[in-house]
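Aim 2 progress update. The chain analyzed this quarter is reproduced below.
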Amino acid sequence: MSENGQTPIPLLKKEQRLYVCKGSPWKEAVKTYYSVRRLGKVWYVPSTYRAGDLMLTILETDPPVAFCLDVATVDGGRGKDIRVDDSKTVLFDHGLSVERIKKKLGFTPQSRGFYEGEKARKILQALRDERAEQKPWFAV
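Predicted structure tokens:
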């Protein structure tokens, strides 16, 4: 831990990709996130992710909120459960405003496909910047 006692947002590694995972309905998604088995049909992410890829979880609240950043431990696939390394999870304790992240980036991170290279690094930096501002996610 370093960023003000919080788990730091990682740098993008070579060959690593960033996926956006949507949690909807958000209340059910949060409930399943904190359950032991984390099962439920509330997480939406393309199944093409690989072990080691990053997953930014956005809850479909109004306005939307960035909830956490995880590292996949297994390759995705149709009907496979999402598995992440809990020791590497970056939980955004008070959520991050997707609207403010969008303004920083000039685009909205989408859950279709993945981001890599410079675009993924820009998203990770926008997360770092938004987290450092410590503003409530619902105050747009």
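The chain is about 25% helix and 20% strand. The helical segments are 26-33, 98-105, 117-133. These observations will guide the mutagenesis experiments scheduled for the next reporting period.
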